[in-house]
């Protein structure tokens, strides 16, 4: 099975400022400062203006639906890698991958950060695929919803970051 999805996240800041924040290691360090169960690595694969963030986090408890716990257990690890390319004019592109421990499955897709009349919008398109009989569809829906929550949390974080760090 697989599930394709897309969603958008609006920002009031322009693309150039958002891209600067997305590719700033200090912003990501601040983002994960209080995430006790998360680990991350940062690198600049194409030099300044690009970044690859590899994140690993334990997920468990009530955050995992009962049907999913029956397959993955009460706790599992989610690994995600986001890559942002250098700014290209008024647009920035990137891509993401994610996987979990304990089950064959993956999440992959693309980011497009583009200008709007009010600032910018982040367009996300992805595909979730889990090869698990009976509960694969539930896992795919759960991972899509989790991705949307994570991106929304990042939206709030980066909006605050830009307010507190207007000059980078």
Describe, in plain words, how this protein is organized in 3D.
The chain is an alpha+beta fold and 168 residues long. The mean pLDDT is 86. The chain is 30% helix and 40% strand.
Main beta sheet, described? 7 strands, antiparallel
- Given as residue ranges, the uncertain stretches (5+ residues, pLDDT < 50) are none
Find the structural class using helix and strand composition: alpha+beta
The backbone outline, from C-alpha atoms, is: globular
> How much helicity do the residues have?
25-40%
Proportion of residues in extended strands: 35-45%
Please count the helical segments: 4
Which short descriptors sum up this protein?
168 residues, alpha+beta, 7-stranded antiparallel β-sheet, 7 strands, 40% strand, globular
List the helices and strands and how they pair.
Elements: E1 3-11, H1 15-22, H2 25-31, E2 38-43, E3 51-60, H3 66-72, E4 75-84, E5 92-100, E6 105-116, E7 119-130, H4 136-164
Antiparallel strand pairs: 1-7, 2-3, 3-4, 4-5, 5-6, 6-7
Helix pairs in contact: 1-4
Report a brief summary of the structure:
This protein has 168 residues and is α+β, with helices and mostly antiparallel strands. It has 4 helices and 7 strands. The termini are far apart.
């Amino acid at each position: 099975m697989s599930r394709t999805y897309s969603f958008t996240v609006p920002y009031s800041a322009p693309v150039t400022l958002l891209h600067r924040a997305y590719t700033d290691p200090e912003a990501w360090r601040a983002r994960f400062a209080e995430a006790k169960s998360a680990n991350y690595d940062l690198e600049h694969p194409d030099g300044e203006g690009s970044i690859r963030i590899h994140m690993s986090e334990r997920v468990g408890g009530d955050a995992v639906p009962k049907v999913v716990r029956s397959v993955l257990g009460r706790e599992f690890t989610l690994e995600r890698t986001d890559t942002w390319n250098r700014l290209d004019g008024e647009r920035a592109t990137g891509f993401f991958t994610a996987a979990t421990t304990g089950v064959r499955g993956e999440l992959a897709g693309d980011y497009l950060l583009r200008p709007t009349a009010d600032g910018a919008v982040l367009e996300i398109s992805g595909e979730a695929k889990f090869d698990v009989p009976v509960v694969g569809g539930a896992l795919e829906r759960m991972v899509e919803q989790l991705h949307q929550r994570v991106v929304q949390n990042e939206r709030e974080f980066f909006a605050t970051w830009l307010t507190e760090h207007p000059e980078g």
